[in-house]
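Sample pair:
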Amino acid sequence: MLLILFSAIFLITTLMGWGKLAEIVVGENLSGISGNILTGIFSIGLIFTVLSFFIPLNLYVETPAILIGIFYFFKDKLYTNCFKISKRDSIVLGILAILILFSGSFYPFIADHFGYYVPTIKWLTEYGLIKGISNLDLVLGQMSVWHIVQAGFSNFADPFFKLNAILLIIYGMYIVENKSWIQIIFIPILLVFSQSPSPDLPAIVFSLIILNEILSGNKNLSFLFAFSVFTFSIKPTVIWLPLFVLLYSIFISKFQYKKLIFGSLVFLLFIIKNIWTFGYPVFPFTIFDLGISWKPNPELLKASSQFAKVKTFDEQYSYAEILEFSWLDYIKNWLFLDGIKSVINISFVTSLIGFTVFSIIKRKKIISLICISILIKSILVLLFSAQYRFFIDVFFVMFFVVFFESLNKKYALLIGSGLAIIFVGLFSYPKIVQQFIPSFRLGRNLTQFEVKQVLKPSYYIYNQYNSFKIGDLKFNVSKRYPFSFDTPIPAISESYIIDYQKEMFFPQLIDKRNLKKGFIWKKLNIKEKKEVDKTIEIIKKSYQ
């Protein structure tokens, strides 16, 4: 907890400095200390993204970034703003910080932490953005901008990857400064994302902040649109957000094309990043095929798309069974899955219907635009892969809009306190989740509190792996474990090696003397096929 606190102080100071520096270019767009920090995150995120095309985000990037931020923090005496927070608000913020630090100190339990988040950060810190990285491990083709920010500060400022916990503290500051007390209800729920650098958290937090700014009358749509696109680049499933800001600027605000230029440039950077790492404009979709030579193998993409359908139904049906579904079966089976997923899916549909009725009753143009944007996003998710993690943000948005004007500070704090007790209790006694909600798979990975967490957060060390060579590619595979979170790179998950064997191809270096040049896929010859077969045989024997 103490080390996360030190990281928080260090990074918040740095980001405030960068926020002040960014105001020279983009002007003052968000008020208060938190607004300054958020502008800093936005600006440093764009800078780190551009740099990552050319150089690794290592100590040589992190050190000057921190020195520049701290320089402007003291040069402009930004620390004086901290004394403007009232004593009562400081107490609320202090309690929030303690809850966040406590929750963030637990072991990571989200599976993507080990198979996606940490491997992505490792690649970014050691090499930067790699052309065609999705040919090595398809999931790495995402390279979220949030992981780029995390990578840039992970060398010494935040070595335990607790940027999400720090963001929650910043979010608490925003709530207190802007007196948006309804949002304090969300923090206890969002604590489940505080242990890992999950892009879900910043996507939800930034969406709610931008929404609050617009509902509160912020007219700087040039920055808000750019920030919404930045949020979209963190997690594209929040496509409703830039769509809403765009619709708002057209139908409510005085529309000017120049207000979209900044956001369009951010979007262009996002597209270029995706093409560089994945070969297509938006991961994981294969629309707008530009004929890029390093795009992934089409059979692998087809298999990935099929698996996404299976995940839609929580792996309770095979792909062949899903193909036999009528539209009625598709809806019925998705709504009535075994376990907690059914509750989430039914809640999602009923909430959408309820929110649509609410927007009709209210007859406010801004609420109607929010509803339209959410419905478009929801339809897209339902069509492609209706997994709850892709629409969870919608619950927060709908609750926020419905109770934006009616829930006062007293009741918000009361509800928030109750939820805090529940979620902190679940972290402290994970067996409650495991016993009463056995279908919630993530609950199985929760661990009890350990005294050592008071000093530093809990983290896993595995570092067991085997090394192989197929063709010109030397790579490592985690031993008796499906993910490669601390395996030296280049590392490939064993499941992908099996897929490559099945489809008779394997990733290879574009330039065998320079890994930074990237990866392509290549059909296996007879010698390489034998090497793959031998590799899989060794992997299977390691489990015996």
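DSSP finds 22 helices and four strands in the chain.
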